[in-house]
Amino acid sequence: MTAIANKTVWLTGASSGIGLALAHQLAEKGAKLILTSRRESQLEELRLSLPSPDAHSVLALDLSHPEKAKETASSALANKTVDILINNAGVSQRSLVVETELPVYRTLMEVDYFSVVALNQVVLPGMIERHNGHIVTVSSVAGKVGTKLRSGYSGAKFAVIGYMDCLRAEMAEHGVQCTTILPGFVHTQIAHNALTGDGSLRGKEDTDNAGGISPEQCASDIIQAIENNKAEVVSGKGMSKLAPLLQRFMPGLLRKMLANR
User: Fold this and answer.
1) Mean pLDDT rounded to a whole number for the chain
2) Percent with pLDDT over 70 in the chain
3) Which pLDDT value is given to residue 119?
4) Which Pfam families match (predicted)?
5) Residue 79: pLDDT above 90?
6) Domain for residue 2, yes or no?
């Protein structure tokens, strides 16, 4: 079982949604946080709101530019030991395939896939050397089950699940734990911030996410998965929790259901 207390946890996407809930719950458990998102001022506000604010630090990165983010993070963390990396940052999409411009697909892959690869490369050498560490990546149920309006998002999330499966196999001999989280519908701003076909923000809620679990519940599921060294965990309720099981055991039925939504 992995303890959280006194561990240095690098958390991306920390300023809102699941990440914000994670920051508070991890800090309550005694973690020392490195908080990452794009806006330094928001991160600083968050740091000051947490228990023992001086135990935490801020590292602002734009994960839509993974190479630059890797370079900045490598320099900033050169003298720090990261025990747990939680790749939580991400961007979603709401647009039909025939209406989605190619740059939108590139942005989704940069943030949801390549940034995970880049930040893992920052911490993995140290974890391998210490024979200890934990990589946690928040994918999505959409990384197991493709649905309408999410072709780019789902493609990136499928990719990151495959990458994490490979990483887990490679890291087994090095004592590095790898956990993939698959949230279903979670009531956050993810739909508001989703990209449309031309790359603009959607700017409104959808009923699926509005009816989902709370970010606090999802954060709690993630922490339990870390503590119990789980390989893969689905966090959700209703159809969004059942969909991966249906995909595995009744794929034909699930395809019909998704086509008729």
Assistant:
1) 95
2) 100
3) 98
4) adh_short (PF00106)
5) yes
6) no
Q: Which residues pair with 36 in a beta bridge?
A: 12
Per-residue model confidence (pLDDT) at position 85? 98
CA distance 260 to 141: 19
Rounded Cα distance, 218 and 208, in Å: 15
Residue 197 in tokens: 């076909």
Position 196 confidence tier, pLDDT thresholds 50, 70, 90: very high
In a domain, 1, yes or no: no
Q: What is the mean pLDDT of residues 183-195?
A: 89
**How far apart (Å, rounded) are the C-alpha atoms in residues 5 and 251?**
42
How far apart, in whole angstroms, are the C-alpha atoms of residue 257 and residue 261? Answer: 6
Domain count, the chain: 1
Residue from 152, 137, 32 nearest 100 by CA? 152
Sheet holding 84-87, edge to edge: 57-58, 32-36, 8-12, 84-87, 133-138, 176-183, 232-235
- Name the token pair of 254: 């699930």
Catalytic residue among 105, 113, 153, 163: 153
Position 261 confidence tier, pLDDT thresholds 50, 70, 90: confident
Which amino acid is it at 95?
A: S
Q: Evaluate if residue 171 carries a pLDDT over 90.
A: yes
**Token digits of residue 125:** 């050498």
The parent domain of residue 100 ranges over 8-259
CA distances from 256 to 140, 246, 250 (A): 21, 12, 10
Structural tokens at position 128: 């391998």
Tokens 């920052």 correspond to 122
Active site residue 153: yes
17: left (phi over 0), alpha (psi -120 to 50) or beta: left
